[in-house]
Amino acid sequence: MLKFNFTLEKLLDFRKENEDSLKQEYMGLGSELSLKEKKINELLSEKNNLMYLVEPTVGRMQIQRNYLDEIDQQVSKLRLESLKLQQGLAKLLERLVAAQQERKALEKLEVKQKDEFEAKLAHEEQKELDEFANRKTLKGGENYE
Question: Judging by beta carbons within 10 Å of its beta carbon (0-12, 13-18, 19+), is residue 76 exposed, middle or buried?
Answer without folding.
Answer: exposed
